[in-house]
Amino acid sequence: MNILLFFVIIPILMIFFLWISKNRNQIRGIMVAGSSLLLILAGILTYLYLTQRAAGDTAEMLFRSDYSWYSSLNIKLSLGVDGISVAMLILSSIIVFTGTFASWQLENQTKEFFLWFCLLSLGVFGFFITIDLFTMFMFYEIALIPMYLLIGVWGSGKKEYAAMKLTLMLMGASAILIAGILGIYFASGATSMNILEIAKAGNIPHDAQLIFFPMTFLGFGVLGALFPFHTWSPDGHASAPTAVSMLHAGVLMKLGGYGCFRVAMYLMPQAANELGWIFLILTSISVIYGAFSAIVQTDLKYINAYSSVSHCGLVLFAILMMNQTAATGAVLQMLSHGLMTALFFALIGMIYGRTHTRDIRELSGLMKIMPFLSVCYVIAGLANLGLPGFSGFVAEMTIFVGSFQHTDIFHRVITIIATTSIVITAVYILRLIGRSFYGEVKNPEHLKLTDATWDERLSAIVLIIAIVALGVAPLWMNNMIGDSVLPIVKALVIK
Amino acid sequence: MGVELYLVISTIMLCAGIYGFLIRKNTLAMLISVELILNAADINFAVFNKFLFPNQLEGHFFTLFAIGIVAAETAIAIAIIINIYRNVQSLDVDKIDKMKH
Amino acid sequence: MEYTILILLLPAIMFIFLGLAGHKLKPKIAGIFGTISLGIVTLLSLITAWEYFTSPRVNGVFEKIIPFNIEWLRLGEFLHIDIGILLDPISVMMLVVISLVSFMVHLYSMGYMHGEKGFQRYYAFLSLFTFSMLGLVVATNIFQTYIFWELVGVSSYLLIGFYYTKPSAIAASKKAFIVTRFADLGFLIGILVLSFYGQTFGFIDLMGGNSDLALQGAAQKSFLGIGVLSWALGLMFIGAAGKSAMFPLHIWLPDAMEGPTPVSALIHAATMVVAGVYLVARMFPLYIVYAPGVLEIIACVGAFTALFAAIIACVQTDIKRVLAFSTISQIGFMMVALGVSTSMDAHGGLGYMASMFHLFTHAMFKALLFLGAGSIIHAVHSNEMKDMGGLRKHMPITHITFLIACLAIAGIPPFSGFFSKDEILAAAFKFSPMMGWVMTVIAGITAFYMFRLYYNIFWAKEAKHEHKPHESGFSMTIPLMVLALITCVAGFIPFGHFITANGLVYDIHLETSVALLSVGVAIISILIATIFYRKETQPIPEMLASKFRFIHKSAYKRFYIDEVYQFITHKVIFACISTPIAWFDRHIVDGFMNLMATATQKLSYLIRNFQSGRVQQYAYVFLLGIVVIVGLILLIL
Amino acid sequence: MDYSQFLYMKEEVSLIVVMAILFLYDLIASEKARKYFSVVACVLLGAHIIYNLIPTSTPGSAFGGMYYYTPMMTIIKSILTFGTLIVFMQADLWLKREDTKFKQGEFYFLILSTLLGMFFMIASGHFLMFFLGLEMASIPMSTLIAFDKYRHNSAEAGAKYILTAMFSSALLLFGLSFLYGACGTLYFEDIPALLTSGNYMQLAAFVFFIAGIGFKISIVPFHLWTADVYQGAPTPVTSYLSVISKGSAVFVLLTILMKVFAPMVTEWQNIIYGLIVITITIGNLFALRQKNMKRFLAFSSISQAGYILLGVIGGTAIGMASLVYYVLVYMVANLAIFGVISIIEQRTEKVSMDDYNGLYKTNPKLTFLTTLALFSLAGIPPFAGFFSKFFVFMAAFKSGFIVLVVIALLNTIISLYYYLLVVKAMYINKNDNPIEPIKTDCYTKISLTICLIGIIGLGIASIVYETITAFSYGM
Question: HSE on the CB side for D239, CA within 13 Å?
């Protein structure tokens, strides 16, 4: 029995038990049990992975096992993880765990909420543990659809519009993705949809690559908030309920980067080399552009959503640099952005739950009213603007140094352009903090608001610990990821 | 007297039938027009069989079956049309467009 | 010397401890904790210094020691960021300076911040700052410098914004962070470029180390007509200029005075602001070899800044602002000193030694000045000169110590400032007479405004106070006295024996001509100041002010630099870049997506009548379909 | 003659037996016995399915090639019968209504006779057989559509159906006559040899044939009757129309295209190509703004027909398999939705989408089922629809119709949009007087449960598809 299977079994069991659960306490119990199990599982997996690597197992993927599924179509349930997936699994489990607590106070239709929530996490986990194109894609879509109901029913603001827009844009992307995947499969003439085998064969014709690489990259890229297809993200995140924006911005957007790297670029290296520059320009646009548009936003969630556009842009940017350091940085950035943005959304949700507004012009002096939340927010902010000691710094520096090692002058110049984002980030973060958290309390209503409850504290603290841990001692994670991106980067080097 | 002549006739019947079906507003008249088309087809079968493939009977049999079926179909159609008449007190085909768009 | 790691660890631990558990403790306890830990750190660094400088020289120079170094992050096969401790003369010197001043400030704050809300937080931040600053100076590689560079930036941000309910404080902290952050971008890019060509971050490797060849190779390469290494080092200087408040990135420093005064003393006078100077000194060998042009730029920028700040300082009325501008000006001196160095040897490298020397002495007497100002402000609850005057009677200790500091900065022997400044002037004259004269004049102006300040505080007309000002408590006066003592004796340290450009011993000998000149100028300007400001009434300054109203006003308004920045940020970046982009995103990009959706809807309404509900029309379409298909096939065939 | 060839007709024969029994039951049963009519019908049909589930004999033909048999046909026939069984269950509530309960027998008999017609149509080896089957399937259908004869909509739908049906079948017949004229025979296995490309008569014949069968599958532009008829017909009949007759017709289309018109493959692939594009697009565009659930599903079923044709266009074995699989999956999903619609209609007379607003508050279970079914139709994992869609795409892609697949894929976005509209209505929209909680009878319960299992299980359990594939190579 492959340990990876538990990552899908546990959510399924959670769904089942939620289905038969009677009251709110049972639901909470199930969620806590399940999510902590997942967390533990992720820990165990990391341990096993590292020990196996230490034991000198240099296979590209560990914990490999194939379960035949649609054998007549060469579709298998192929499991396997490398450092990247392990990192992503850690991230997902942390965020599912904290998301559970962030939505602890949820009142209406708790059962259904967590039902869809679990389906969402099922998709996420499944995506990261499989290496079979079809299965991967299936989990990818499983993760997408619950968003509609989660946002539409439990969201806030113009939720119907946002939910519909998000779902349609992402589904549109995945529609293109199907074509890309089928293209890869048939063009490679492989006898399986297993990524490793297709990559090993590496016989996708050049012109086919030129057609299907953009499709695949775009298909995943939209989820990675690739300019100009990022507009679902501000509205979607703004209207989504806390836990959902956490999971979506924290993990789901990473599916995009992961897919681009693992599928689009790994399987079609020539096209990646030839067409990479187009997407490189797009991503660097979204890095700068997202940051700039965040400056003038007034809604906390919009600010964060645009900063997500900017940071996720950095992920795609880095993987397109096609060298080990930058790619490692990209994965680190996925991790750190996931954690940070989840923390952000969690805190925003908690603040919104109290003040019932997210407009920074109406918020002021929160530091006096709810010190804990505010301090956490400041920490999140500092992490977000890439302060040393937090994960953001590690990731961004790895990306910048790595990208700048590129031998081509164009790439180096564009890297410098991208680096300017760190200043802009500082501007909007500090503006926001100065406005909403410092200063005197303008709205007397807010004075009687309370600080965080234990569950909220828990979720915030867990996230902060993760961020700091990654920021202070990045080396082991860095090595784990670095070893794993190597084969892909090697594949990208054209002989 | 060759096969073409018959074909001309059947074609004329076909066109007449189609024309009638598209133009006549009376449902029964439309029914009759359809009959014309069907009969044109029957004629074709018979003619092809007779002139092109004289040494077999496939066409004739087909014609027989077709006639039978058409008879049944027409019967049902008339029943339904009567039913419509009961509902809207008219045979005008344009009366039955309650459901649209 | 492994114990040096404690110098880093203690403040860090103290920060975490106070940060997490601080609000549980009594304020007093927290303060004591912080101060004691800093005391230990100071002790350790003094021991370190002693041990280091008494250790035998290897062919004439103190060898660089790396007692501790770990790989922190690996970036590719050659590049890796380490966290470690590098002991060489300048870093050891900085260790002493920082820990000493920081200790004084800790002590001083016990009294000054007494009863403030968030006392524990204050000490936590102080420890954080100390940790970061120490980490910065002992960095073994350029990237570690950058890391701690950022950390000192943020701790200064936190400390400036300590009174987080005060709008001006918020604005100031924001400004400080963003301006320095902007400069740091230059630093970062510089690092990127350097590391790209040098394939290392380590100082030792960079300077005459393994990557020398790589760098020599890179020296030929050029980008936009300028050598890549000049680019790298120039960009790094931008970073340095940002931290050290060189023109035009100086605007954050005066506002930074919004923070508590001890903080200003520690961060914005003694330690953090000289980080830039330290960085240039650190990279000095590279500058000399690969970017002499950049050094000249540094010299010019420094000189201009020094002059510029000095002029402004003459007309400010907020005593902390006067001190802030004098700080800027003095740092200008240090930069000039570095800039005018032409070679590594004792002769050309005199400026290097001088700037380090001045850095040392300046740290002491400027800290003293600020702490004195602090005790004054503590007494009169105001920063404005007009609320002071005639305080000499009420607070003698403060008075004496302040006077000593003023004399030191004015460059009157035998106080420390004289010696260091003299060396700088000498170096400047060596570089070019022009530069020498300019610096001399600036020295004069310095003396003038310092004594303007002095007289306006302690003499002049006594302002009426609701309750009589009184001398501050021991916790505040003791640091004053200690620093005053150091200021008196520091000049006699044979600095050249410890720190020179090439590390070889160099005996400081005063060039009489320069010395006499500077002293003369200083005395003259002091006299002028005395005439102007000693009296109860001050007719001459007012007359001058009214005569040259424009100059006076613009100087008072700091030559409107802040307004320019205001304009750029709000009118240009916010209004002309961000807002349009945001609009574009909402209405064009997003609009396009919505357009497609609505277009589909509209289409579906347009073709509605295609389904008319009439059987005959259905038949039409049916037939039409057949005809069309047939037609198409005929076309295809 | 050799009676053993009747063994090939196992399905038909047993179906006829079932019909006969029901007929007699209808004649002789007492009022009390009539109460159990539905039970009897369902049991008999169930028995029929079980009896024919396993494909026994090897491929072969009977009656001089008039009748064909391949194991694949057993599969499709069982699927259709299975669907019919579910329709029976869902129809019960409606049949128990005052104005229909005296003609239950007719309903069962008529439905089964159309089913028989489809069987013959599927199994036909000669165009005469095909034509007979077709008509046998469509004539009783019109009476079924007009079953609620005192309701205007039903009557109108019946009229529209019979008129267009006659029109199309007349043209089909005319086309067949041309084919006969061109080839001199109408046996499936003889025709291919006689087809010569560029023969206008054959071409015309072929187009007429496509039109005639397209009418059954409701391919654009031969689809216009669909919406009205679906809306007007009694809901069980609509569901029967939408899945069973469509499914059988598609299957037949594929077999005939593969068997008979193989020589003119390029022509028919071009035609089908165009038809698929407009069918999917037009269907979607119309479905966008429908407010009546049945009409909405009519258009959705039109676009679904387009997707089904993706399995046809390749004309390959994998296409056949994916097609049959698609039909099966589509059947369970559609029947689930129609089941919900019909029970709501029976209880409350409400069929408008606006009435469904806030349904979730009152009927969570029904809503949940509907949601899953809609997701399945939209092709969202882990529900069966995803797999079936993916497989037909795969089939078409494999045959090299990449652009077509992309177009179809982009269309899925529109379809997702309108399916989500229903979900939105049920979950999100507010409603002042929502449909009160509905109690479902055991028949509906069973049928919906079966559908639910199908929706979830058919995709996850690859065995179904694998079996179908195994037989598809028997073509």
Answer: 27
